[in-house]
Amino acid sequence: MVDEPLSVTVLGSTGSIGMSTFDLLARDPQAYRVEALVAGRNVERLIEQAKTLKPKLAVMADPEFYAALKEGLSGTGIEVAAGDDAVIAAADRPAKWVMAAIVGAAGLKPTMKAIQRGAVVGLANKETLVSAGDVVTRAVRDSGAVVIPVDSEHSAIFQVLDFEQKDKVEKIILTASGGPFRTMGGNEMARVTPKQAVAHPNWSMGAKISVDSATMMNKGLELIEAHHLFDMPEEKIDILVHPQSVIHSLVAYVDGSVLAQLGTPDMRTPIAYALGWPRRISAPVPRLNLAEIATLTFERPDNNRFPALELARAALRRAGSMPTILNAANEVAVGLFLDHKIGFLDIARLVAETMEAVDACELQGLEDVLAADAEARIRAQEIARRLTR
Ligand SMILES: NC(=O)c1ccc[n+]([C@@H]2O[C@H](COP(=O)([O-])OP(=O)(O)OC[C@H]3O[C@@H](n4cnc5c(N)ncnc54)[C@H](OP(=O)(O)O)[C@@H]3O)[C@@H](O)[C@H]2O)c1
Question: What are 25-53's pLDDT values in tens digits?
Fold first, then answer.
């Protein structure tokens, strides 16, 4: 029996995860029918991708690029659209599988739309779960959507966690590379530039997540993400620094067994896992050669030099909208750092001060999340002005 092509939509198709997804789709055109491709501002790349994958619809979030998109795809028969509403409408189109790879809280509404209509969602956009964890989890339960984690750590856990015996799990252990400043002293860290911060030693990623990796806020966000994905309490999630990024995460069971998933640091492996789920499909990634690597090392994270980790734990313990506040303040702080407006160490400082300045509230639905997010951004900007005076 020949399988029907899988209908797919890629939200954030021009980004780092989007391009890895594009690569897998383009290698096997018979296996997929592309419903929609969605980008932010990189119109040239979207046009190029659309010409190859021939989606039914191509969308730019920024309406400024509508004319260029329309002209670039004229004569192809591909429908074009632009603007935030068009992004959400694209997520609502009937693709069975959706890659959620828009960066930041901008991905929240379209990801929720795909979840609400019951799609299988490959979730790269961790900010969605950090910002709106309980709201997303409820929506998944109500719609019957399936969320397959794409973050390499969560993909690893998803692959080795015995969902039937979750009560026999002692710990989830998220590995962290430690980022580019793992061994750097505090004084030197105060002076690092955005260029240094985005140069990750193992992974090639977008600017925001690269800075998050450098502050280790990325691991903090992943801790909150893991809490929601696997329904694990904060105290059962450990962080282990593993600079080689070969072991992508581990699960420890009550009988002393520790199961791990390993691979070379190439996001096409977790993306392929999500795309093929529940089966495995091949991915053209470099194969793991442990004899060549020879040594794998591990360290405890340094919470003094990387305070972001503890901020994320505190946000999760304080619950309600506190993780939303943490995420929003972090997005503001990373944006200001990338614009050379604040220093590297100010990122965690700004997040901590915003968490103190804004009261957490209950989150009943998406509107509450968006309101908490907006308030935290305003307060973070105010605090940043004071920090930079
Ligand atoms: N990169 C990784 O290895 C990796 C690993 C695990 C998890 N993740 C997560 O995956 C997500 C994407 O990361 P990334 O590294 O791929 O980021 P990225 O390279 O910066 O790409 C972000 C994508 O989102 C699009 N976008 C930005 N703002 C948008 C908006 N308002 N509306 C619609 N689209 C918008 C961008 O479009 P334009 O470029 O056209 O502006 C781009 O396609 C993040 O949440 C990140 O934490 C990434």
Answer: 999 999 999 999 999 999 999 999 999 99
Q: What is the token pair recorded at 324?
A: 């939303």
Q: Which atom of ligand 1 is nearest to the CA of 60?
A: 33
44's tokens: 């040239």
DSSP strand pairing (247-253 vs 258-262): antiparallel
Backbone angles phi, psi at 5, to 5 degrees: -60, 145
* C-alpha dihedral, 212 to 217 to 218 to 223, nearest 10°: -170
Q: How far is CA 256 from CA 172, 173, 300, in A?
A: 13, 14, 20
CA separation for the pair 376, 47 (Å, rounded): 35
Predicted TM-score of the model (pTM): 0.97
The answer to whether the CB of 283 is under 6 A from ligand 1 is no
**Sign of the CA dihedral 191, 303, 168, 317?**
negative
3-state secondary structure of 80: strand
- Ligand 1 pocket, residue 130 CB under 6 Å: no
Residue 142, Cα to own-chain centre: how many angstroms? Answer: 23
Is 356 exposed, middle or buried (CB count within 10 Å of its CB: 0-12, 13-18, 19+)?
Answer: exposed
Q: How far apart are CA 25 and CA 33, in angstroms?
A: 9
Query: How remote is the CA of residue 274 from the centroid of ligand 1, in Å?
Result: 17
